[in-house]
Design brief:
The protein has 164 residues and is α+β, with helices and mostly antiparallel strands. The protein has one domain (7-161). Helices cover 46% and strands 26% of the residues. It has 5 helices and 6 strands. Strands 1-6-5-4-3-2 form a 6-stranded mixed sheet, covered by helices on one side. A hairpin with a 2-residue loop joins β5 and β6. The protein is elongated and about 65 Å long. It starts with 6 loop residues before the first strand and ends with a helix.
């Protein structure tokens, strides 16, 4: 399945905000990607064979991703949300989406590839046009594949909100 658009999610819990923040901190490995390829690469190498959840929490703002063993995480869906109080308990709500950097790269890349396809088509180079069109389809699949990450994230957040 492809994650082309964001998915809004909401999880209700009878736990307090403080309890949810503590539980969140316990299940994730703290990691804030600051744009350094070397930093991301060393993180992936460190947890290469482990299945982990990683992300960050800034007050009530949450960010969480899932790393599967022997996989890279550059374009996988990520949960972006917040914790708020809700009557007798708390609520975690937000969205699961592909990271912004991936969407920007995909937009630029697909524009270039599709333009090259149109150039080949206008020059009656049908094999080239077909090849670039196939490259566009393959790029969409590679950049926006879900690979079960949305289900893993929703399961982890559901478990996080459950009473002990």
């Amino acid at each position: 399945m492809l994650r082309l658009t964001s998915k809004k999610v909401r999880f209700e819990s009878s736990l307090t905000k403080k309890q949810l923040r503590k539980r969140f901190d316990n299940i994730i490995i703290p990691f804030k990607a600051r744009g350094s390829i070397i930093e991301v690469s060393s993180f992936i190498k460190k947890y290469k064979t482990a299945e982990v959840y990683y992300g960050s929490r800034d007050g009530d703002k949450l960010k969480m991703s899932h790393h599967a063993p022997k996989k890279t995480d550059g374009s996988t869906p990520t949960f972006y949300g917040s914790i708020s109080e809700n009557g007798e308990g708390s609520v975690i709500e937000g969205k699961i989406a592909v990271p912004l950097a991936t969407r920007i790269f995909a937009g630029i890349w697909l524009t270039v590839v599709l333009l090259l396809s149109l150039v080949c088509l206008s020059l009656e180079m049908y094999a080239g046009a077909g090849a670039f069109a196939a490259a566009a389809v393959l790029s969409i699949w590679l950049l926006f594949r879900d690979a079960g990450k949305t289900k893993k994230l929703t399961d982890a957040l559901t478990k996080l909100c459950e009473d002990e």
